[in-house]
Amino acid sequence: MNFYKNIKRGGILLALSVAVLPGASVAQQYYDPGLLQKTVDRKPVDYQAPGVRMGSFMLKPGAELAYENNHNIYYSTDKGISDSIIHIRPWANLASDWGRHSIEINAFADIARYNDFDTEDYEDLVLTLDGRVDVMHKSNFNYKASYMQLHEDRSSPDDVNGVAPTEFTYSGAEAGYSHTFNRVTLDLNYRIIDTDYHNNKDADGNILDNQDRDRTRDSITLRGDYDLSPQRTVFASIQGNQVDYDQKFDNEGFARSSDGYTARAGIGWNLTGVISGDAYLQYMDQDYDDVRLGSISGLGIGGSFDWTPTKLTNFNFRFANSPQETTRGFTSGYNSKLYSARLQHELRRNLLANVRFSYTDNDYESNGVDPIALTDTGVIRAGFGMSYLFNRNVSLSGGFIYEDQDANAKEFEYSNTRWFLTLGLEL
């Protein structure tokens, strides 16, 4: 893991050097499984809840009560088992309203209760803290912490098929420093993430061991931006990472710890009120301790943009690829490529329609020993929805999502449809 150690050592030296200079600000990234995405996105200004003033803070609480009908709750290949589910989703956002510095706290829960198959019930919880300290002009220090108590979807190839969904916790912290010199901005960011899976049980009461999946990932990123104009920026970054599994060998005897790096170069743009985003080219490489596990490497593209062609219409698009962990036998990991798009349009001021589509291509790195090893999956998700805003505080939404996964191994193929009806309350 020499490459990562060199990147880390160099990053720490740069941090010490930049800390004595007037300046700092870091691009903040954190794990978001989609739980923080509210059903109604981009409300018109006159239908946005005002929140509650608490001194120099603004509190914005809310909750959703949702009904879901899922026709294939186990994501099985053959005829699926359907069930109806009730979701209770309370959430709150507390943000500072200061002239200098900032702090923001988010809390979200998704409590799901199945009508017939109560073994599938779950309670997901997400807590995040996000802050910035303005050291001086064009210089700031950023920090973030998060704790998530989640469940693993039945559609995951790593699911151990326990009597209940596998629970896991995801906790992380990061800190960064940024400084702008005229048109040049330098960022340094360190991040550490710990993933801890709980054991499960099969139908006979036997323990399904998940401890070999527990791991810690830390990374350090150096990034430089150059402003070509107020609307355009070119950038380049290098990130080194190290993944350490709690157990040196997994339950099948593989040493899955790894280290790697990702190098990026691209351009960003921001035409206020019309279009903003970025696009980049990257090269990544992830090498594993076990010589039987092949490395994941190659070129890729990424980026996102947000386009508002009219005051009534918004379109956003994202594409990305990154190495992901797995503990499937004879497979080191997989390269996941995501392409997603979402369109929202105001049919009336208080009647919103949206259409969503995404495609995920997962290429698994297998050593070829297992003839039925999972080598690739392709997941299509498409959906549409409508939201009626009664006023600033109350909304009613309905929607439909179709999902289909193809794979080289038939046992991992499935299709699924889900219907939703959601009542939203917000202060």
Keywords, please?
mainly beta, 427 residues, two-stranded antiparallel ribbon, 18-stranded antiparallel beta barrel, single chain, 21 strands, 1 helix
The helix content, as a percent range, equals under 10%
Task: Let me know the largest β-sheet.
Answer: 18 strands, antiparallel, barrel
Mean pLDDT: 87
Question: Could you give the order of the helices and strands?
Answer: HEEEEEEEEEEEEEEEEEEEEE
Number of strands: 21
Question: Can you walk me through this structure?
Answer:
With about 425 residues, the protein is mostly beta strands. It has one helix and 21 strands. It starts with a helix and ends with a strand.
Which helices and strands appear, and what pairs or packs with what?
Layout lengths: L1 H18 L32 E3 L2 E14 L12 E14 L5 E13 L7 E15 L2 E13 L15 E15 L2 E14 L2 E2 L5 E2 L6 E15 L2 E14 L12 E14 L3 E14 L7 E15 L2 E13 L5 E18 L2 E16 L9 E14 L4 E14 L6 E13 L1
Antiparallel strand pairs: 1-2, 2-3, 2-21, 3-4, 4-5, 5-6, 6-7, 7-8, 8-11, 9-10, 11-12, 12-13, 13-14, 14-15, 15-16, 16-17, 17-18, 18-19, 19-20, 20-21
Could you provide a short overview of the structure?
This protein is mainly beta and 427 residues long.
